[in-house]
Amino acid sequence: MRIWWQRLFGPERIAYRRYRELIGTWPKDLSWYRAAFTLPTSTPSREAYLLHSYERLEFLGDAVLQLVVTDYIFRHYPHFDEGEMTELRAKVVNTEFLTEIAQHLMLPSLILTEASALPRRQDYLADMVEAVIGAIYIDLGYKAAYRFIHKKIFPFINWSRVEAAEFNYKGKLLELVQQRQLGQVEFVVQERRRTSRGEVFLVRLRLNGKEISTGTGLRKKEAEQAAARAALRLLSE
After folding, report:
1. Residues 197 and 153 in one domain
2. Active site includes 62?
3. Is 192 found in the same domain as 109?
4. Whole domain around residue 8: which residue ranges?
5. CA-to-CA distance for 21 and 153, rounded, in angstroms?
6. Cα–chain-centroid distance for residue 219?
7. Which of 142, 164, 186 is the last residue of a domain?
8. pLDDT tens profile 123-161
9. 58, 62, 87, 127: which is the annotated catalytic residue?
10. One of 87, 130, 139, 224 is an active-site residue; which one?
């Protein structure tokens, strides 16, 4: 009874209603959602960081989102093998798409960090989507997070268009290499030969001067993408 009074008439009633409108149900602990909408602008104490951390919520939310999307793909694409399912998931769960979702959900209006302290690039909005999912999961459980993803995110996914879209293996590889600080990536055109189909390119991909994959294609870009795809599989093993 007390919690309902707080939600409807207490000093936090506006916050309760705003988060209820976002997630589709009443939250229990507002502190998790406040943390999800507060970007770290300075280094907090370890105790404060571990208690309610935006980055820890983002880490948790990313895992939950990956699981829900993976579950959907597994059930709806029984003809896909592991590599194809991984590729389709990567097309969906990416920074560009999640940033668009943040805008659709009007998350910027809920941010508690001062505007002057926000990063110039809007990539953080993608992280915020994952932080919100993490907050829902830790506050209300997996079912609530699952419903939020299906009701608030999935409607914006055009699965047939996503499936048909050309995946940017080269961009994904460069992002992975940068994240892991693996070194310098170099694409080298090793050979150009004429065939009955036209000119074919052979590209070798080097990581820190060491060749790790090759790719062929009727265009240089196609060959680079093929080499990047092979490198991604190798680095993901």
Report:
1. no
2. yes
3. no
4. 2-164
5. 15
6. 30
7. 164
8. 778 889 999 999 999 999 999 999 999 999 999 998 888
9. 62
10. 130
